[in-house]
Amino acid sequence: MSLILDGTSGLSDVDGSAATPAIRGTDANTGIFFGTDIIGFSEGGVEAMRINASGNLQTLGTIGVGNATPSTSGSGITFPATQSASSDANTLDDYEEGTWTPTVTAQSGSITSYSITGAKYTKVGNIVRASLYINMTNSGTASGTASVTLPFAPVDTNWAGCGGEVGAVGFSLNVFGSAGGMSFRKYENSTAFGTNYGYLLTAVFQV
Fold first, then answer.
1. Is 5 exposed, middle or buried (0-12, 13-18, 19+ CB in 10 A)?
2. Which of 144, 137, 138 is nearest to 117 (CA)?
3. pLDDT tens digits, residue range 95-135?
4. Cα–Cα–Cα angle for 63, 65, 67, nearest 5°?
5. How far is C-alpha 165 from the geometric centre of its chain's CA atoms?
6. CA distances from 83 to 5, 66, 73, 75, 120 (A)
7. Phi-psi region of 53 (alpha: psi -120 to 50; beta: other; left: phi over 0)
8. Measured at the alpha carbon of residue 146, what is the angle toward residues 144 and 151, in degrees to the nearest 5?
9. Going from the N-terminus, what domains does the chain have, and what CATH number goes with each?
10. What does the pLDDT look like over 169-185, one tens digit per residue?
């Protein structure tokens, strides 16, 4: 069956509701209904989405971008597991939260043992904020600067827009794009690694 609108009388007085939408298929409680300055969409008798008079789209669940399957754990915007990059500078095309397993290497010598906790990152577009806590349990023969691998490789080997902290111990932080790493140095009388020192690191870098 076809529904024909003649453009004169239109379709009126059939606003319906979320439970009984005005326009529906064989499922009696799934379709489109109308209210005061809104167009609503219902599924299973419950309003799932609406467009208001200002042209704003409101949803009760998650929106999937780039054919991503929307999350069922809460409301928000779900991006694909693999970024679908946009050439438009004003388009947010990626968001990700996660953990990674960093590797620590010494500038010279070798580290006998260390432990890492809380290695987490948040990626928004092409900017990443990464943080981790390192407990140097046995520095071994290590000295100088340590390199800590990052969850993503920085885009530019000369880009140094980053910062961080190491508890009460001062330190400097640099991004090594070619090695995909992060470095820190504790400032004391010696540049040698200190056994049982803890280092809380944060870095912000471009990918």
1. exposed
2. 137
3. 999 999 988 887 778 888 888 888 999 999 988 888 888 88
4. 110
5. 22
6. 43, 9, 21, 20, 19
7. alpha
8. 165
9. 23-86 (no CATH), 99-206 (2.60.40)
10. 333 333 333 334 444 44
Q: Which sign, positive or negative, has the C-alpha torsion 108, 113, 117, 121?
A: positive
Mean pLDDT across the chain: 74
The 10 Å Cβ neighbour count of residue 89 is 6
Q: Is the pTM of this model over 0.70?
A: no
And the tokens for 202?
A: 């944060």
User: How many angstroms separate the CA atoms of 122 and 92, rounded?
Assistant: 14
Question: Which ranges constitute the DSSP H helices of 58-178?
Answer: none
Calpha distance 181→86 (Å, rounded): 26
Q: Are strands 63-64 and 77-78 parallel, antiparallel or unpaired?
A: parallel
